[in-house]
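Marked as duplicate of an earlier ticket. Keeping the data here for the record.
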Amino acid sequence: MQKSDFYFNLPEGAIAQTPSEPRDHARMMVCRRNEGVIAHRRFLDITDYLTPGDLLVLNDSKVLPARLLGRKEPGGAAIELLLLEQKDRDIWEVLTRPGRKAKQGARFSFGEDLLSAEVLDSLPGGNRLVRFSYSGDFFSVLDKVGQMPLPHYITQSLKDKNSYQTVYAHQPGSAAAPTAGLHFTYGLLDKIRAMGVEVAFVTLHVGLGTFRPVKVNDITRHHMHSEHYHLPQSVADAVNRTKAAGKRVFAVGTTSCRTLETLGRMGLPLTAADGYTDIFIYPGYDFKVVDGLITNFHLPESSLIMMVSAFMGHTQTMAAYETAIQNGYRFYSFGDAMLILP
């Protein structure tokens, strides 16, 4: 298939700038695999489509306030660092702006000297390896001096940085939120559990590659970014029980889906795993684990809409997106939800 097969014209006003309040009052388009749109609901109505014995798998990665604005030492020239991946205790791979000021040995300070950084090396592709110095706990300091790395299409500042965080975020490491999970509240999760639906958590740290466009026309030649995942044995056991009982596994977001399908390619039953995945799911892919998908509405020609098309069918997906535009659904990170049933 060609990249252009996944293009659609999205009005700028359809891009959500702020999250729904309350979270679970976002709109939800309900679809069925290989069938398309069947209902227009609110996210809190998701309980009408779940049954006892089903399993929801969510990504508990926590977004870091990974955008650091500081000054070069000496001289005071402005610098911006964006944390990408922790390589060792105090050593991170970062994106720097402007890169010419981040030569090996350069030093920077942030937050009235609460945090400082030294460039250790330049990496292929232009990123830098830096070592941070600070007093106390790194993530506590980062929470004081860092800003949330919002996607470029969100132009409004956040009143509360936790609005770009799922309520169950636990494992620090993402540069972007697993946004399908933003719709859940503590109360809704409690209600789902009370129904007899199991809730389990994997971790996949979302990298900036999630926003990287597909540049090749032949999508089979696209190389996906690599992201770190962790699947505990307890979650593997939950998936195995659910599949053995003939019940349904719902992936909450494309990140949870990538994690489950990465391991599903190795065969069932699943076992605990920790590693990196660069799986690229596009139409023609045979899903091994995921029966249902909860997701948001994605960018045209992105790898994410290609994954949704692989799951629901290309024709049905593009028709659903056109329906969403016509019906005023909100798109992207703070936008509305899509529930795709088996």
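See parent ticket for discussion. The first helix runs from residue 138 to 145.
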